[in-house]
């Protein structure tokens, strides 16, 4: 049995299309219309009847504020997962591809389809059930980044979103985090007009 885990698309259609093509090539079954509707109504966490030992969620199993990282302590992991019966946990939100083992359990972070921080390429996760248990495979798929950048121009994305949009355009173009480093830089440099701060930050690189 194979499960494709797709997270954090962030409106990047070419990246999503590339991932869906890769999933199709691997022979993972697509959702039916009824299943797509069920996706729209999903609660914060999901367990599939076919995979009762796997818990799927976005940032944390309780909400999007309780974010767990691969470097979170065992005590932190236990505080959020201690009452769960599942042994394999699949998350998004972090935009990285990571694997963490603790106390006989595994947490796997999918990576981001549309806004990766690990270089260009749409990231996602394949889970395959083997005799020994679930085997995770992180995948990276090339997609047409120039097409996305062209759409930014055609839709006047920066004009509509302002200075913050410039950071996201740089993020997509380079496949590297821009917003969080900017926020840290902005806090450290006192009172500067926001647009001027973005300009100065982008010119640092």
The N- to C-terminal Cα distance equals 45 Å
Task: For the largest sheet, list the strands in their spatial order.
Answer: 2-3-4-6-5
Mean pLDDT: 91
- State the major sheet: 5 strands, mixed
Structural class, by secondary structure, is alpha/beta
Q: How does this model look, in words?
A:
The chain is of the alpha/beta class and 205 residues long. 37% of the residues lie in helices and 23% in strands. The protein has eight helices and eight strands, in the order E-H-H-E-E-H-E-E-E-E-E-H-H-H-H-H. It has helices spanning 13-25, 33-40, 74-81, 145-154, 157-161, 163-174, 179-188, 194-202, and strands at 2-5, 45-48, 51-57, 88-91, 98-102, 105-109, 122-130, 133-141. The strands form two sheets. It has a five-stranded mixed sheet, with no helix packed on it. Strand 5 and strand 6 form a beta hairpin. Helix 6 runs parallel beside helix 8. The model has no long low-confidence stretch (mean pLDDT 91).
């Amino acid at each position: 049995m194979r499960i494709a885990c797709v997270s954090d698309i962030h409106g990047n259609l070419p990246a999503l299309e590339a991932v869906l093509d890769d999933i199709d090539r691997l022979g993972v079954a697509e959702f039916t219309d009824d299943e797509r509707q069920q996706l729209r109504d999903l609660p914060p966490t999901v367990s599939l009847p076919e995979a009762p030992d796997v818990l799927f969620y976005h940032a944390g199993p309780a909400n999007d504020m309780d974010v767990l990282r691969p470097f979170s302590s065992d005590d932190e992991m236990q505080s959020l997962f201690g009452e769960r019966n599942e042994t394999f946990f699949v998350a998004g939100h972090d935009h990285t591809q990571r694997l963490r083992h603790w106390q006989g359990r595994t947490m796997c972070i999918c990576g981001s389809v549309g806004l990766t921080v690990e270089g260009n390429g749409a990231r996602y996760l394949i889970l395959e059930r083997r005799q020994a248990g679930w085997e995770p495979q992180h995948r990276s798929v090339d997609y047409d980044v120039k097409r996305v950048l062209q759409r930014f121009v055609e839709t006047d994305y920066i004009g509509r979103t302002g200075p913050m949009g410039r950071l996201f355009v740089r993020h997509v173009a380079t496949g590297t985090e821009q917003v969080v480093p900017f926020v840290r830089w902005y806090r450290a440099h006192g009172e500067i007009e926001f647009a001027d701060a973005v300009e100065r930050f982008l010119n640092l690189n």
